[in-house]
């Protein structure tokens, strides 16, 4: 581009405009391609997670059917611990009542 004496550029603005449009188009295309790759990766990982969860659920079901009393005792213990924890969190603190 040629500069005139007053600092204005007398270059081809259409050429610059086309160059910027092409650069913008390339950037948009690259962003779409990257988004498509990320979407495909997320779908693959979600499918793998679902397959893993299904296999774990089947395994747990087999264990419960093989040892129902042990499973019931475990569930009872977990429920008891959860109840104690919730009651502890829900009850007012003794320090607060002393103030």
Helix/strand/pairing category: mainly alpha
Number of domains: 1
What profile does the largest beta sheet have? none
Count of separate DSSP helical elements: 3
Q: What order do the helices and strands follow?
A: HHH
- Determine Rg (CA atoms, Å): 33 Å
**What is the overall pLDDT average?**
86
- How many angstroms does the end-to-end distance come to? 81 Å
| Annotation, overall tally of beta strands | 0
**Molecular shape:** elongated
DSSP strand content: under 5%
Helical proportion, percent range: over 70%
- Low-pLDDT runs of 5+ residues are none
What can you tell me about this protein's structure?
With 99 residues, this protein is mainly alpha-helical. It has one domain. 83% of the residues lie in helices and 0% in strands. It has three helices and no strands. It has helices at residues 13-66, 68-90, 94-98. Helix 1 (13-66) packs across helix 2 (68-90). The chain is elongated, with a radius of gyration of 33 Å. The model has no long low-confidence stretch (mean pLDDT 86).
What's the helix and strand layout?
Layout: H1 13-66, H2 68-90, H3 94-98
List keywords for this structure.
83% helix, 99 residues, 0% strand, mainly alpha
Quick structural summary:
The protein has helices at 13-66, 68-90, 94-98. The protein is an all-alpha fold and 99 residues long.
């Amino acid at each position: 581009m040629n500069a005139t004496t007053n600092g204005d550029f007398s270059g081809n603005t259409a050429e610059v405009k086309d160059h910027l449009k092409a650069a913008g188009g390339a950037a948009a295309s690259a962003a779409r391609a990257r988004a498509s790759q990320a979407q495909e990766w997320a779908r693959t990982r979600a499918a793998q997670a679902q397959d893993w969860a299904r296999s774990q659920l089947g395994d747990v079901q087999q264990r419960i059917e093989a040892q129902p009393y042990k499973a019931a005792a475990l569930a009872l213990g977990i429920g008891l611990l959860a109840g104690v924890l919730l009651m502890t969190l829900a009850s007012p603190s003794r320090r607060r009542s002393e103030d």
